[in-house]
Amino acid sequence: MGELLFVGLGLYDERDMSLRGLEEIKEADAVFVELYTSLMPGLSIQKLEELVGKRVSVVSRRTLEEEDGQLILREAEVGKTVLLVPGDPLIATTHLDLRIRAERRGIKTRIVHGASIVSAVIGLSGLQNYKYGRSVTIPFPEKGFTSETPYRVIMENRKTGLHTLCFLDIKAEEKRYMTIRDGLEALLATEKQKRKQVVTPDTLVIGIARAGSRNPTVKADYVKDMIKYNFGAPPHTLILPSKLHFMEAEALITLAEAPEQIRERVR
Q1: CA pair distance 134, 253, nearest whole angstrom
Q2: Cα(23)–Cα(165) distance, rounded to whole angstroms?
Q3: What is the C-alpha to C-alpha distance for residues 251 and 267, in angstroms, rounded to an integer?
Q4: Scanning 34, 83, 100, 187, which has the fewest C-beta atoms within 10 Å of its C-beta?
Q5: Domain boundaries, the chain
Q6: How far apart are CA 27 and CA 81, in angstroms?
């Protein structure tokens, strides 16, 4: 019986993976990578293959979800198999499902963790980790329908003084990546319907682009100004802060060019 390893690639390019991950890949009999759960702007499959000395097969969402990862599981039954995943492997529930399937078939599984967008944006923003509530994904509007879930999550987190980390929708197969502007427009559309003053033009928000790169963009401002700000290429992430600790306010002013007036938000 073989084994299945989930190896995190990190955030930006093939150099972000850990040395442990690199060693495990070099010893593998089969190596797969999925690139649909997150965008790694600097990743090159050719450079990745040169780095690990192995052929790396790209698998689609269909392979892992509709076909239940059978291609990968068959390889893992007879040899050491690695699935490379952007960020940290088990952040996406898709891969938790695959791990459960493997274990139930008697295949040993292990995880080699990688840098996650969750910890990266917390560090880049300067907001304190313990003050985050439930995170949420803002999906692309479909056929004129805009999901109200992100709006509700932000509202509930704010009631208890917690910040909200908003992941922005990715449709890798269509090469569509939601921008911070898109996310804010979706939230404002819900605000127009609900009118609960959860996300208004005067709401403070934080946008982060290309976390993990040498030059990520980190900007804090009010929605009315942020919606016009050019964050450049994706991936983008959005944070809706609640009440700020004085150190958080100073961090946003210093690291994210937030307006000086946010000191008034300090509790």
Answers
A1: 25
A2: 33
A3: 15
A4: 100
A5: 3-112, 117-265
A6: 9
Q: Hey, is 55 helix, strand or coil?
A: coil
**CATH superfamily name and code, 117-265:** Tetrapyrrole methylase, C-terminal domain (3.30.950.10)
Question: What CATH homologous superfamily does 3-112 map to?
Answer: Tetrapyrrole methylase, N-terminal domain (3.40.1010.10)
Residues of the chain with pLDDT under 70: 267
Cα–Cα distance measured from residue 80 to residue 31, given in angstroms and rounded to the nearest whole number: 9
Residue 244: CB partners within 8 Å, gap ≥ 6?
Answer: 127, 252, 262, 265, 266, 267
- Would you put residue 2 in left (φ > 0), alpha (ψ -120 to 50) or beta? beta
pLDDT digit string, tens, across residues 44-88: 999 999 999 999 999 999 999 899 999 999 999 999 999 999 999
For residue 232, which phi and psi values (nearest 5 degrees)? Answer: 75, -155
